[in-house]
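Duplicate of #3305? Posting structure anyway:
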């Protein structure tokens, strides 16, 4: 509740009176009518989906399903921590936060939005978890318990993120909670792949009263955390709210202008801003190899200075196997494998993106463009090879792939993935002046479509032998590995030797 002194403050009353016109009868009628139409359209599909929850759990999918739910919850907490989560519009953040107005009255609207987002995210997580564990009996009771547990987890996690924005000690507890959720995901994946399935099956067959009791305890804990977060709103430092508001404004601008490339700059600037880096001597071998490897060495340093991100990337190599077991097949394993390996390769192309954004600086370096491209392709190829090899080993261990040296497809496809990542790093912002194609499925703007496919097309073309092997699953994978090695090397060589303007890096 907002204190009476805050509600009667003349400045706040003035701002509230001019934030928008009062709702009319037409506005209320339109809102109610829209809700009724949405209920009529979605009522039957939602009822059928809820009725489909009344089933016994599949022991083979319990572990992977629970791992995905825990990983999604960890992602929700990490996203809340990255965005703030307490943010304000630029004008409010610049003037109201630094003013002597009551802080909780200024942030009350933001707190309500955060609570709504946490409730929706928690309800989605609860329903997903119930679909994994099933409801062999008492569907209504189990559904209510799952919703309450999910909402409590979402609201409690958001409250913990708000507390983490207040002080470094609370932020450390939030990071511990994220690490705990990831540990649960790993433990669930391990238990689901071995004899530990019996433990998960026993949890799924637990009586509904146990879920009700857990939901009650979770609700009490969530209410306590919400109370603590509401009290902490008045003590959040202004500079942290300003920083999170600026970061969120950049993300919103990138989303509204359909320029996703800006998001990478936002993440990089937010990480390196205010950090003191120690100077380290460069290897003597770089001076003997020439200027091109020295130019590419900055990517190796950037990756080495963020070991946590590298460890998370390599740990994510288990996702294709977990998803393949959770959905009961490996139909999407090839696409997930390509996306993950391409993401690993694109993680270390910051220098190429900066050269594309500032061509004049790239020319001043006086480095041969082809040599620089070849040197910069080494690290993306190495990361893509490592990630895809680990993912293929996981798919084979999960029983999705037959016996054979399937891991060799990863290093064979790495050059093509590196070429695709470098091409993605050099793409320009989205050109919104390009025409719109009218298709039976609706209008498709060609500018964002071409931007999204730039680089992906090269990686997809260079990885066709590996994708064909994953789709057909032959008895012998050796011919596909040989064909993939030739195709990957040819694509990377063609990309490096392509004619470029000014032969700049």
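Output from current build:
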């Amino acid at each position: 509740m907002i204190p009476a002194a805050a509600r009667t403050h003349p400045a706040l009353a003035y701002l509230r009176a001019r934030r928008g016109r009062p709702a009319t009868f037409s506005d209320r009628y339109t809102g109610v009518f829209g809700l009724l139409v949405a209920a009529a359209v979605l009522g039957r599909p939602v009822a059928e989906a809820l009725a489909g929850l009344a089933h016994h759990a599949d022991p083979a999918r319990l572990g992977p399903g629970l791992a995905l739910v825990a990983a999604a919850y960890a992602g929700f907490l990490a996203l809340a921590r990255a965005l703030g989560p307490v943010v304000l519009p630029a004008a409010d953040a610049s003037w109201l936060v630094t003013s002597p107005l009551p802080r909780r009255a200024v942030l009350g609207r933001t707190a309500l939005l955060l609570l709504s987002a946490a409730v929706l995210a928690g309800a989605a997580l609860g329903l997903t978890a119930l679909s994994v564990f099933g409801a062999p009996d008492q569907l209504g009771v189990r559904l209510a318990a799952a919703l309450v547990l999910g909402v409590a987890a979402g609201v409690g996690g958001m409250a913990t993120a708000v507390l983490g924005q207040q002080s470094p000690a609370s932020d450390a507890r939030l990071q511990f909670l994220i690490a705990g959720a990831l540990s649960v995901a790993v433990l669930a994946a391990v238990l689901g792949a071995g004899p530990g399935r019996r433990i998960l099956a026993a949890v799924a067959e637990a009586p509904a009263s146990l879920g009700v009791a857990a939901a009650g305890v979770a609700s009490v804990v969530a209410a306590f955390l919400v109370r603590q977060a509401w009290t902490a709103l008045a003590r959040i430092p202004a500079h942290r709210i300003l920083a999170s508001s600026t970061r969120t404004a950049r993300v919103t601008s990138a989303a509204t202008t359909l320029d996703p490339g800006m998001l990478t700059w936002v993440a990089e600037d937010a990480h390196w801003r205010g950090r003191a880096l120690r100077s380290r001597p460069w290897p003597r071998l770089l001076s003997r190899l020439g200027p091109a490897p020295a130019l590419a060495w900055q990517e190796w340093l950037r990756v080495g200075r963020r070991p946590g991100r590298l460890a998370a990337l390599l740990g994510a190599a288990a996702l294709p196997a977990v998803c393949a077991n959770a959905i009961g097949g490996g139909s999407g394993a090839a696409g997930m494998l390509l996306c993950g390996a391409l993401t690993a390769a694109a993680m270390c192309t910051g220098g190429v993106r900066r050269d594309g954004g500032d061509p004049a600086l790239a020319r001043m370096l006086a480095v041969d463009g082809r040599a620089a491209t070849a040197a910069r392709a080494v690290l993306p190829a190495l990361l893509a090879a490592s990630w895809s090899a680990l993912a293929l080993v996981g798919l084979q261990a999960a029983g999705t792939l037959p016996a054979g040296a399937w891991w060799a497809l990863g290093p064979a496809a790495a050059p093509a993935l590196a070429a695709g990542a470098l091409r993605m790093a050099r793409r320009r912002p989205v050109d919104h002046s390009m025409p719109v194609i009218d298709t039976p499925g609706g209008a498709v703007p060609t500018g964002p479509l071409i931007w999204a496919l730039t680089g992906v097309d090269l990686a997809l073309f260079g990885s066709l032998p590996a994708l064909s092997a994953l789709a057909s699953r032959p008895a012998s994978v050796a011919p596909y590995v040989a064909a993939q090695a030739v195709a990957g090397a040819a694509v990377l060589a063609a990309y490096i030797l392509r004619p470029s303007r000014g032969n700049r890096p």
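Confirmed duplicate; merging threads. The CA atoms of residues 105 and 502 lie 57 Å apart. The chain has a mean pLDDT of 80.
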